[in-house]
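User: tokens in, sequence out, please.
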């Protein structure tokens, strides 16, 4: 159950039972109710579930629900179920109301907490679904020089204000094409953090082709977290992720990842892949990676315009839901055998959720999180890179487009009509700004297919948390 301390929500007297405040769903023989505003999750017996169903059909009238069930349940059972529900209501964990004001305004602290540092706008692969245009984001194939990288880190430490924890992701293209600059910036960042009394988390996202003993030893020694790109089974990976010459990359990528996982000193990685219309059975790709010893996995749905042959379509949703259902059951099977693995989208903390700002505004793109081009230009995130309509400034001169920053700051769930009535709003925080813009030219209109997949993943993630608890 969510710790109520610091909650957005207050316990209030419920005069009418509004079932839009709850999300009810069933997985196998497990009956689950999410109290949307508090985030508290309840598991019910079949009898309590049936009571709740009748209660909802009775328009929220508790007395009518009890009367309707008198022929099916004993007086004692009815009294016990009714008492249980009324106690949950009185303690504020069922039918809790949202007390965030309609005119909610997020804090305007002008603090930057994380940078996506585009070390290289070039790549040694030619992935067919690449949102970066195979590396340069529609601009020149270039590498960031050391001076620009240092100025970016200087900008981060200055713009982070009093914030203790800051983050940098070395990104591309393929950042290991510019490894010498990465090495210098990693050391420079640690020195800056120590001098400023801050904690710096540094991550590197790589396709793993160039990973070798020297690079891996450096990354381990410097406590760098890695995101390692691989799509799953060899035939799936090679179809969408060829090298520059068109040949398959799986053998090189798998060799680099295996070398890293074998030599890493702690759980400092995720392998991250993408599934497309060509591998709707993506659960098999996840299990393939897990069985190869890669036990921290994130496989994401491709985001692409419907005209692409690899794009996911709305009619794919039933198959995709079956795949997440299969993955959930396989996760439980592995867990019970003492071989647990982490699947990123099933990692849901039901005890202490994220802070208020993150629950309402998500990743912080364009406000607390920015991306830096090789020339030092600032953009809201990596997916807006080189779109000059979203140029926010430069690390040498700072943020100059404050109105754009305000636009992103205001793009929270209470400004998004579809989010206001969605049960998942406090988990997904309104979805990806870039996806909203790319599909609708509007930051406030979420990408619908992404929303549906997010809700499917959340239900199975909650289900798995419940199964571990019980």
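Assistant: Sequence out:
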């Amino acid at each position: 159950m969510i710790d109520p301390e610091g909650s957005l929500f207050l316990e209030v007297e419920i005069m009418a039972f509004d079932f839009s405040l709850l999300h009810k769903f069933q997985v196998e023989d497990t009956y689950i109710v999410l109290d949307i505003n508090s985030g508290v999750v309840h598991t019910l017996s079949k009898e309590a579930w049936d009571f709740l169903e009748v209660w909802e059909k009775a328009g929220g009238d508790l007395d009518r629900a009890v009367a309707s069930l008198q022929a099916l349940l004993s007086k004692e059972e009815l009294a016990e179920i009714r008492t249980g529900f009324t106690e949950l209501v009185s303690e504020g964990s069922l039918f809790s109301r949202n007390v965030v004001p309609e005119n909610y305004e997020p804090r305007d602290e002008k603090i930057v907490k994380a940078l996506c540092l585009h070390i290289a706008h070039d790549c040694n692969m030619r992935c067919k679904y690449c949102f970066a245009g195979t590396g340069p984001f529609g601009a020149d194939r270039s590498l960031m020089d050391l001076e620009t990288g240092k100025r970016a880190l200087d900008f981060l430490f200055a713009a982070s204000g009093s914030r203790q924890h800051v983050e940098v992701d070395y990104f591309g293209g393929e950042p290991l094409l510019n490894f010498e600059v990465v090495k210098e910036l990693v050391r420079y960042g640690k020195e800056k953090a120590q001098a400023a009394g801050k904690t710096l988390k540094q991550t590197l996202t790589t396709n793993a082709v160039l990973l070798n003993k020297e690079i891996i030893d450096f990354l381990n020694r410097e406590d760098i977290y890695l995101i390692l790109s691989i799509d799953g089974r060899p035939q799936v990976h090679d179809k969408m992720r060829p090298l520059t010459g068109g040949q398959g990359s799986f053998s090189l990528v798998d060799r680099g990842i295996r070398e890293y996982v074998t030599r890493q000193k702690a759980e400092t990685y995720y392998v991250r892949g993408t599934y497309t219309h060509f591998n709707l059975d993506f659960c098999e790709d996840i299990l393939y990676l897990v069985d190869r010893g890669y036990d921290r996995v994130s496989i994401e749905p491709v985001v692409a315009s419907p005209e692409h042959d690899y794009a996911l379509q709305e009619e794919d949703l039933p198959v995709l839901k079956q795949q997440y259902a299969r993955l959930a059951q396989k996760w439980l099977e592995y867990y019970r055998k003492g071989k647990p693995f982490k699947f990123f989208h099933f990692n849901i903390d039901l005890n202490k959720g994220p802070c208020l700002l993150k629950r309402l505004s998500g990743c912080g793109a364009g406000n607390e999180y920015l991306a830096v081009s090789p020339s030092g230009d600032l953009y809201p995130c990596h997916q807006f890179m080189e779109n000059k309509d979203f140029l926010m400034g430069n690390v040498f001169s700072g943020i100059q487009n404050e109105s754009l920053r305000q636009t992103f700051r205001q793009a929270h769930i209470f400004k998004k009509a579809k989010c206001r009535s969605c049960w998942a709003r406090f988990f997904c925080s309104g979805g990806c700004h870039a996806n909203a813009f790319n599909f609708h030219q509007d930051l406030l209109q979420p990408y619908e297919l992404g929303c549906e997949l997010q809700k499917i993943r959340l239900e199975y993630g909650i289900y798995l948390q419940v199964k571990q608890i019980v």
